[in-house]
């Protein structure tokens, strides 16, 4: 079977909510990484086969097929099409999967993939919430089929995060210690310059502005997001932010045609579902399925990027997979570095690739929980 290769990977800094990137139109935020991707690679812009972007809540500035509009706003050729993917938090990771599948099928050779999200302008799930409190909307309440299957069980990320913490016996104090380490790792990575190769500065911002100098005492003083979920606070949750990211996925024929040097090979890609009421547990079974399909053991995986939607998600995954925390999110995760929804998939994969190169590792695994109880898994092999 033909192989799919990663030639380049980059991202904007993550701008905190109402921060340095908050005033940039979502299309221009996406255009920034696409323009840079094309400029620093030797492929003529009009020879790209497609642009596949992840984006969640495609309304307002994010509407109108933002993959296509970002490409055009970057001043790039009219003949290149674009399509926008919504697999919730895993949208741009799924974009990589679609691009790799196109390359592996032999139908395309050069695909720009990525994602964009401006959470300052378009708050999470704006299309569904319609003024309801964050995270408590129930878009399924009018569906007879849904209610027949799941009754009145809540589809709620905070409920799920608390349920996971309780089921896996993870205390609030343990989650706060995990969150503190996420910030410390991110701040140390910034100080050491580990993100400099992957970040393309924008609007005067050269580094992520989301990591915080905090303490366990400050975290312990925070009120829960809701009294029903006593262990879930802002401190143990991912940060809303504004960002974009992009990667270049090509075929072997394209490597030869354009004299490109591959940085990684797509070793495995899959997606798996789990119970939508548990909502955030799918990375566990999705990872197990990926290991079964590839024959790899977790001990052979050098680095893991698993999205820190909530501390309990990652901690439960680590318990079930028995994987070394020292090799998981080694530069910090979304608690410190933000979770820009549609951009997070390729943002994490960009960091994973650069970290494999920095550390000399061979295999990197990426997974993340997604709305509806889903999870993508991608395993890349550094070349």
From TrEMBL:
Presence of keyword Transferase: yes
Pfam family, one: Thiolase_N
Classification via SUPFAM superfamilies: Thiolase-like
Keyword annotations of the record: Acyltransferase, Transferase
Entry's Gene Ontology molecular function annotations: acetyl-CoA C-acyltransferase activity
Keyword Transferase: yes
Sequence ranges assigned to domain Thiolase C-terminal in this UniProt record: 261-382
Active-site residues, record numbering mapped to chain: 89, 339, 369
Domain Thiolase N-terminal: 5-252
InterPro entries, per database record: Thiolase, Thiolase-like, Thiolase_C, Thiolase_CS, Thiolase_N
NCBIfam families in alphabetical order: AcCoA-C-Actrans, PRK07801.1
Homology family: Belongs to the thiolase-like superfamily. Thiolase family.
Name of the protein in question: Acetyl-CoA acetyltransferase
Organism name: Halopseudomonas phragmitis
Lineage per the UniProt record: Bacteria, Pseudomonadati, Pseudomonadota, Gammaproteobacteria, Pseudomonadales
């Amino acid at each position: 079977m033909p192989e799919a290769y990663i030639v380049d990977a980059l991202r904007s800094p993550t701008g905190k909510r109402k921060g340095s990137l908050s005033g940039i139109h979502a299309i221009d935020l996406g255009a920034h990484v696409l323009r840079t991707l094309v400029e620093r690679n030797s492929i003529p812009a009009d020879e790209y086969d497609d642009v596949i972007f992840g984006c969640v809540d495609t309304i307002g500035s994010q509407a109108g097929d933002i993959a296509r509009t970002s490409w055009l706003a970057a001043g790039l050729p009219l003949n290149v099409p674009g399509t926008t993917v919504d697999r919730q938090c895993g949208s741009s990771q799924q974009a990589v999967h679609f691009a790799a599948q196109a390359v592996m099928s032999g139908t395309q050779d050069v695909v720009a993939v990525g994602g964009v999200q401006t959470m300052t302008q378009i708050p999470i799930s704006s299309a569904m919430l319609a003024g309801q409190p964050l995270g408590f909307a129930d878009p399924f309440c009018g569906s007879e089929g849904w209610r027949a299957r799941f009754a009145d069980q809540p589809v709620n990320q905070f409920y799920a995060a608390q349920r996971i913490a309780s089921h896996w016996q993870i205390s609030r104090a343990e989650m706060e210690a995990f969150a503190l380490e996420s910030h410390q790792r991110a701040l140390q990575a910034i100080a050491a310059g580990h993100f400099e190769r992957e970040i393309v500065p924008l609007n005067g911002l050269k580094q992520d502005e989301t990591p915080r100098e905090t303490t366990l005492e400050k975290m312990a003083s925070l009120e829960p997001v809701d009294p029903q979920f006593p262990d879930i606070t802002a401190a143990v949750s991912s940060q809303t932010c504004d960002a974009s990211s992009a990667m270049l996925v090509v075929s072997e024929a394209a490597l030869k045609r354009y004299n490109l040097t591959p940085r990684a090979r797509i070793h495995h890609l899959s997606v798996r579902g789990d119970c939508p009421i548990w909502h955030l547990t799918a990375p566990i079974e999705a990872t197990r399925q990926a290991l079964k399909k590839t024959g790899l053991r977790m001990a052979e995986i050098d680095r893991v990027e698993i999205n820190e939607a909530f501390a309990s998600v990652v901690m439960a995954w680590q318990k079930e997979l028995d994987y070394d925390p020292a090799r998981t999110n080694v530069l910090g995760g979304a608690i410190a570095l933000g979770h820009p929804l549609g951009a997070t998939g390729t943002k994490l994969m960009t960091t994973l690739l650069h970290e494999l190169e920095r550390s000399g590792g061979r295999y990197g695994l990426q997974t993340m929980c997604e709305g509806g109880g889903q999870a993508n898994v991608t395993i890349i092999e550094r070349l």
